[in-house]
Amino acid sequence: MRIKLSIFMLLALSAIANAANLTVTENLIVHLDAASLNGLQTGDTVSSWSDLAISDTLDGSLSSASNWALPIYKANAINGEPAVSFAGANLLASDSNLTIPNTANGLTVFVVATGDRSDAAAERALHFGQASGSPGQIVALDLSTNTTLNDGGSGLRFNNGKVLVKSGNPINSAFHIAAFKMAQNSTYASAEYYVDSLTRQSYNNTANTGNTINLLANSNILTLGAGVQNGSFTGGDAYTGDIAEVIIYNAQLNTAQMQSVYDYLNARYFTSSGDDTGLVIHLDAGTLAGLSDGDSVNNWPDIASDDSIPGDLYTYGNWAAPIYRRYGINGCPVVKLQGGDLLTSGTFSLPVDITGVTMFIVATGDDTYAGGQRVMQIGQASGSQSNVLGTDLSTSTTDADGGSGGRFNSGKSLVKANNPLTTGFHLIAMRMGQNSAYETLEYCVDDLTPEIFDNKANPATIFSLLTSNNSLTVGTGVGSTGDFMTSDNYHGEIAEIMIYNTLLDDQTMQDIFDSLHEKYFESPINISPNQAELTEGESVICNISLSTQPVSNVTLSLTESADHPQVAFDRSELTLTPENWNTAQTVTITAIDDILLENRYELTSVRVRATSTDPEYDHIVTQFNTTVIENECGRWSNLEGDYNEDCRVDMMDFAVIARFWLWCDPMKDDQCFNLD
Description:
Blueprint: H1 6-19, E1 28-33, E2 48-49, E3 62-64, E4 72-78, E5 81-87, E6 92-93, E7 107-114, E8 124-130, E9 138-142, E10 154-157, E11 162-165, E12 175-182, E13 192-195, E14 205-207, E15 220-224, E16 227-229, E17 232-234, E18 240-249, H2 255-269, E19 279-284, E20 299-300, E21 313-314, E22 323-329, E23 332-338, E24 343-344, E25 356-364, E26 374-380, E27 388-393, E28 404-407, E29 412-415, E30 425-433, E31 436-437, E32 442-445, E33 455-457, E34 462-463, E35 470-474, E36 491-500, H3 506-521, E37 525-528, E38 531-535, E39 539-546, E40 554-560, E41 567-569, E42 573-576, E43 585-591, E44 601-612, E45 621-629, H4 651-663
Parallel strand pairs: 38-45
Antiparallel strand pairs: 1-18, 2-3, 3-6, 4-5, 5-18, 6-15, 7-12, 7-18, 8-9, 8-15, 9-10, 10-11, 11-14, 12-13, 16-17, 19-36, 20-21, 22-23, 23-36, 24-35, 25-30, 25-36, 26-27, 26-35, 27-28, 28-29, 29-33, 30-32, 31-34, 37-39, 39-43, 40-42, 40-44, 41-43, 44-45
């Protein structure tokens, strides 16, 4: 039996409570648990990961590898448990001379991890076997989520063969329990692969399945984040995702043992009190009963019922009421705000132990292209600085105060140059820790990858929600003087808002995101492609069809969401029938080459609205997002004297002239400016 350092024994004590339910310990050779990484905070690098299996002779502890970056620690990744996050260029590896106690016993491996988030193929989360990477003497767990690439799918790899599930791949970017079991000197095809249950997966993307696995006793290595081929770590197979726990047995566990381990992991990571824990405000336009198109929305009820916060919204003073639209997105209603509309709650208190705030918003980007357009704001009713969080859905990329993201009344964290918002609908997610710096705000648009802020003010200032005297406003914010802002009015449409008075973990956020995405963005109207970047004058051909056969004709009408037209289409209406529903019809969308001097990038959406007597399609709305690139300065091209080609003549052009005049020698360079 090996002897481990006594200091490690002390560090491991904190993980014993979590591991207490792991009753299958016979032949356990590696146990890596992110909860044992004591003293780390989210964002800290993980330079080592100690093996908790201490009753064996194999030390599976991991450490850094030369020329590879370190993964980072995430304190609240899934169900309140931590994980180690790999970003596609991170690696942890064991000693390269591990001895497997009894190779004849084979292996059983369990991993709690996310699917790879890069959408590439061959993404090895775990690799075990010969340090040389000799084919057939290693096994690697591939958690690729890809289902289209030739080498896509999840499953097992052996460096000279593979058994993967491509069509019907059970792995997505969320957390999963992945497991595999294999016998020594058995064919690749006989390896058993499981995901989220103990029902064996069927392989449909394979190579050399008749080859056999032959683990050697000595000179083995365990790696997380990438594999080993030809004696070197392989960057091409690097994994992007989070790993919470790894359990390896030098045995083929029987059915009862497999079930015991699975139940332990499932109870720890996937059994919770429900996604609504901490839900304090929930506004859904679908609950506004008795309203017709164009009716005023004077009251928006809060349907979060298991909390003490009164989040109902009402009109206020001389501010106008927004209006109701029965069919806004994917057949769902919305509340439309027109720049002078406001809904606000009464004051309420938050729990004294609040850890932060997590919010989801389904709304359009502001359609005025101005800066500072607050769709909503939560926090102090007085608007006191750093005690509020405002959500800015400005679509501007040029306004000095432009960009979308968060505002705090004494600072901002915005995305400007690469603003992801168009005037179409988006699914926004925000997560902000209590007593954290403005720049730590996580702001996500249409996926759960945080955007990078490039328009910031006072980024290190601390955000803190106070316990009492809080309110929620929709349509604008409350300034630091305590007055509703008349300059930050939002122009757009809102379908749903969900606010949690806690920092939800990654898995819960993913579950909520997926539910909202399915509700609002998974349309039965197929558009391919569904987005494009066009320079003025350029066109794209879109193929439009239906995903299911309608019972009657479906007429699709195309309109643009922007006030000033940016695109044109060769047909504004088409009809799909029960006979041709799955035969694509084409629409050519062209970026208008106008004579207006506009922003370098204009964002717009083409909305496709269905009309039919078939209730499954009637009033369904989907969208095609377009970025239109200004072709210099419209049809007039650049003005005379516009030397920096920014479509205007000003002192910046004089600076260009001065610089070249100082540098140029007209006797030697005929390209110099002639100032005569």
